[in-house]
TrEMBL record:
This is Ribosomal RNA small subunit methyltransferase A. HAMAP family: 16SrRNA_methyltr_A. Its EC number is 2.1.1.182. Belongs to the class I-like SAM-binding methyltransferase superfamily. rRNA adenine N(6)-methyltransferase family. RsmA subfamily. InterPro entries: KsgA/Erm, rRNA_Ade_diMease-like_C, rRNA_Ade_Mease_Trfase_CS, rRNA_Ade_methylase_Trfase_N, rRNA_adenine_dimethylase, SAM-dependent_MTases_sf. The keyword Endoplasmic reticulum does not apply. GO terms for molecular function: 16S rRNA (adenine(1518)-N(6)/adenine(1519)-N(6))-dimethyltransferase activity. The keyword Cytoplasm applies. It is found in: Cytoplasm. It is an enzyme of class 2 (transferase). Its main location: cytoplasm. Residues 20-188 form the Ribosomal RNA adenine methylase transferase N-terminal domain. It comes from Alcaligenes ammonioxydans. Specifically dimethylates two adjacent adenosines (A1518 and A1519) in the loop of a conserved hairpin near the 3'-end of 16S rRNA in the 30S particle. May play a critical role in biogenesis of 30S subunits. The gene is rsmA.
Amino acid sequence: MAQHQARKRFGQNFLEDEAVIDQIIRAIGPRPVDNMVEIGPGLSALTRPLTQALERLRVVEIDRDLAARLRNHYSPSKLEIIEADALSVDFGALGPNLRIVGNLPYNISSPLLFHLLEYADAVVDQHFMLQREVIDRMVAQPGSSDYSRLSVMLQSRYRMVKLFEVPPEAFNPPPRVVSAVVRMVPLPADRLQARDAGVFSRVVARAFAQKRKMLRGGLGDWTPHIDWDGLGIAPTSRPADLSLADYIALADHLMDKGVVQVA
């Protein structure tokens, strides 16, 4: 089979280390009847062992040359190929009890994680390899320099565990960063959550838009309407100081005041 040249525009770095591949597959724990979707199968590092473990696997691949290689190598009864940008895929149309896995391209990792948030109700779990820096932000706690909008939004919907790190030499070509693997399990319906997800998202986004500013400055024209004492939040706090519960309370408060409208 002809050698495939990694394409920078797709953020391609192909996993080759068999020990790391085995470690990821063991972490996923695929079962034959699982409704599993792999994002970015690339040169089949995970696809191969997954198809051996599953009755059927779906993959999402944007690179038409790689999609063609997959079609030549796997039976359509074993592998369904969705040739598309993962950011445009309606994962809700792929059925219930989804298990989503993948070595996600670094250049779209955050937008893709936000896209997948929309489908969390249909998901059992997600296992992704990402840039270590991104996973550190995903699991960061309040007060940490890594704590960000990504932290708050994902922690509002998933229980996440950073499983292990993967060195650059496990890939071809080697990326200039260390990677890591994360497990994401959607939280149950009785989780602590804001009354309106859209309002919550807008409040978190505005707060972190000026991460170094005190909230009383960063929240702009919302600030005069906030009962800081009632919420137990200091107006001199910075966005990274607030917990998930604080952001939920702030979002509900601003909605009740009519400051942030329900979409």
